[in-house]
Amino acid sequence: MNLTFLSSIVTSAKAEIQVIKSWIPFFARMTIALLSLTTLSAEHVSIPAKQNWSFNKLTGTFDRGAMQRGFQVYRQVCSACHSIKLISFRHLKALGLTDAEIKVLASQYQIKDGPNDSGEMFERPGRPSDYFPSPYANDKQARAANNGASPVDQSLIVKARQHGADYVFALLTGFKENPNFQLSPGQYYNEFFPGHAISMAPPLSEGLVTYNDGTKATVEQMARDVTTFLAWASEPEMEQRKRLGLKVLMYLLVMTGLFYVTMRRIWKGVK
Ligand code: HEC
Prior knowledge:
The chain is mostly helical. Among the domains are: 129 residues, Cytochrome c-like domain (Cytochrome Bc1 Complex, Chain D, domain 2), CATH 1.10.760; 30 residues. Helix content is 47%, strand content 4%. It contains eight helices and four strands; from the N terminus they run αααββαααββαα. The strands form two sheets. Strands 1-2 form a two-stranded antiparallel ribbon. It has a two-stranded antiparallel ribbon with strand order 3-4. Helix 2 packs across helix 7 and helix 6 packs antiparallel against helix 7. It is extended. Bound molecules: heme C. Heme C binds next to helix 6.
């Protein structure tokens, strides 16, 4: 065995060690991340049951009836505390509302506008292009009215939480008798809220809304409907996205076939 060969092995081994060393901080971070994940899961949190949502499947769409009922629940119940800032009145066309209905609906809201020529802010009836106004003027006011907790904006809540729609549904139906859990005044026991102590009183109760379409308003029904509405609000373009995705898949499939045939032709004579 000659010396140059040996020294080349040594240099390549050194290079390897260098590479491994450079990965050490990465592995260390990964280990810490994994450890913190296990401690998180050690804290007891119930996993929401999987629901059979119409919008889950590959070609899934939002159930229009459920969305409309869900909007009714949002409007009559949740909007007292939760804003939905990213949704404008005209977005509701997606629920099947006509332009005229949206105009009437918008005009029932007072929208802050201005300043006018004398520099003052003023209120005016809403227009279809306006976004839903927030129930509170600012976060401080929202907290003051809710025992220090801020009712989150609901525009993206379904996307923002692990288990998405399943979690929101489970949360709304997950208020239970307190099993001797330490709760501060103004907190309620919820099986699915991380930490179990939530500063939102159970917002739904049997028959709370009277559905325009005559559906019986059980807690579960309202929770399912409002969750469908919020899932739509979180991703109004989902149906287009899925349609486009399918088209792209079909296109790729056809192209794969064409390319395969072409390849066979080109290589036909070559043994
Ligand atoms: C009386 C005010 C009030 C009403 C009405 C209300 N909420 Fe809440 N909600 C709150 C507050 C306050 C919080 C924050 C709780 C906390 O952080 O402990 C909250 C939190 C939430 C959360 C977030 C939980 C999380 O993971 O952070 C969801 C989801 C939610 N509400 C959904 C709803 C829905 C849907 C409705 C209507 C059916 C509704 N809320 C009605 C006050 C309200």
